[in-house]
Amino acid sequence: MPEPSPGFRPTLEAVAARAGVSRATASRVVNGGAGVRQPLVDKVRRAVDELGYVPNHAARTLVTRRTGAVAVIIAEPEIRIFSDPFFSQQIRGISKELTEHDTQLVLLLLEGPGDYDRIARYLAGGHVDGALAFSLHTDDPIPEITRRAGMPTVYGGRPSWTAARDHQAVPYVDADNRGGARAAVQYLRDLGRRRIAHIAGPRDQTSAVDRLDGYHDVLLDADPRLIAEGGFTVESGARAMAELLERSPDLDAVFAANDLMASGALLVLKERGRAVPDDVALVGFDDMDSVAEATDPPLTTVQQDIEGQGRLMARLLLRGLDRDREGAPAPASVITPTRLVRRASA
Amino acid sequence: MPEPSPGFRPTLEAVAARAGVSRATASRVVNGGAGVRQPLVDKVRRAVDELGYVPNHAARTLVTRRTGAVAVIIAEPEIRIFSDPFFSQQIRGISKELTEHDTQLVLLLLEGPGDYDRIARYLAGGHVDGALAFSLHTDDPIPEITRRAGMPTVYGGRPSWTAARDHQAVPYVDADNRGGARAAVQYLRDLGRRRIAHIAGPRDQTSAVDRLDGYHDVLLDADPRLIAEGGFTVESGARAMAELLERSPDLDAVFAANDLMASGALLVLKERGRAVPDDVALVGFDDMDSVAEATDPPLTTVQQDIEGQGRLMARLLLRGLDRDREGAPAPASVITPTRLVRRASA
DNA sequence: CAGCGGGATGAGAGCGCTTCCAAGGCGTCC
DNA sequence: GGACGCCTTGGAAGCGCTCTCATCCCGCTG
Q: Any idea which nucleotide's C1' is nearest the CA of B15?
């Protein structure tokens, strides 16, 4: 690429003139060159190179009504984003998929309740073609906002207002939390454990609810004293473990709804002199890089492909956008498989 | 706001018609209403509300040559982004500042070397008004790319190709690494320590270099055997500490270039039976939330305002963009102050 | 050899907005 | 009371691009 005076940008007009063709033909070549004879294609291509031409995005969007950008909406960034490796991996997956389809990622972080207005205006302003949003609360205004703006949206994690088995209403991508939990508990039972406790996640997160459901799927008449609730953090896991030990000293296995809580539980178990896995078998969920393999003993856990989920979200959205123009139906949701990874803790 | 048929968007024309004014006047009102008499302003405002009008961004950009968006370029996301709380905090600061100026954040993650082309094209395509990039390697192509594209850019962290004291060449925001290090080492010396070791960060990161320089500022003729190099991780800190203990068993203080390495060093010190801070005083850097206060004993460390740095980067860029139109000079760099936080480790 | 069909090309109309400029209206000053 | 000037408003151009449609040229058929 040559270096024209920085800041100055040649137009299609200039390219056309230099190539000795019309603007229409130049445009055709720039957009793939279908229906243009080879010699002209070459001429135009050369002119593009010589001039260092890059199409003006705004002009193109104005007529095509396509921005080539997608919004990623993240509520409560203080809690989740970034610090949560979960998010970061999903975002990377999203980014990869979007990049492969020449689509840009516009990050919309909600810093406070007042920001909903801003988001609404932004989406309505036609800056982006679609949106990706992450697991929302029951009364989250985001879905209503995207709906009003007529903005195709794919959710990450089953939104709490959808029934667990209804994958139609709103397109979302989620791991098979229930199935994974089922597999984990089943595994513990196959190991011969009889008093299998569960450290659940917060009730207002569907992933936690689904994992609890999976636990109940296997242990139909589970003793309620074997269930404690944590907050998906190490400390809360430790607290829940202490509580369980108090209530049910005879427990011989624990299925924690995520690895962080499992690692907290592990600390307490060791402290109280319960050998893992001999006295108490322990299974986590997520197979979190920095956690599951780092504990002593390493955690048996349920693995899910987080980056893949991000990719899938993006793919679903992009596919939906394409279909949109062809009037085809919106894409349905996808549940990604999970897999039990056996390590030393169970 | 009413709910017009989703997907359909009223144009300025429609607003003007409904308000009984010309498009020009409607436009003026939408853009602040300067020079329009109050009654007309009200009429137009009402029409905007009734119609649920939102300006078409592409059309506006086409004529104003302003996109109202800024790119955040992040290389090697695998290593850093998100998982690194550093980044996440800076991004949050950036996001907040941009939001306050009605500017959008476009995330450009570089997934591989081939992506530089993509970035170059993107920046040249006029999608964004400016860019923010993070501490780059010496030979990183990003600066050249942004320069060619005529894209105003602010860097996070002193770029390695600039001299430590030259804040002019390229606008960047960085903490006063050298000053912070100086303060830390000075503090250790004031404590009466005489054999003060340093666990440095990787030589190809300017923050590490600057912190090492700060160490040397105080200890002009430091014993080279008191310096070891780590990789800013816990493990590397542990390794470096072991190495130092071997080489210089008589050390009575350690200044680690970041908290992660300090925590690694702490583990080794305890393991070898060196009491902290009695036998060996320990100081870190960064005052990382999840680390500095969580160790036992908690770390004395050098604090910096990371989110503030992000904010500053954005502010510098936005200011530069405004000035650009007025032909004023580009903004200079900013070095943010650091502060020694005393906890139990020294 | 004339006529016809199809593919390649160009002319031109907008996409929705901002902004220059001219026109109009009103107050003010002499 | 008339002229001047300022403030408000509207008309219209044009940002850079895509895409429809008409035109043209070619080869082929009868």
A: C16
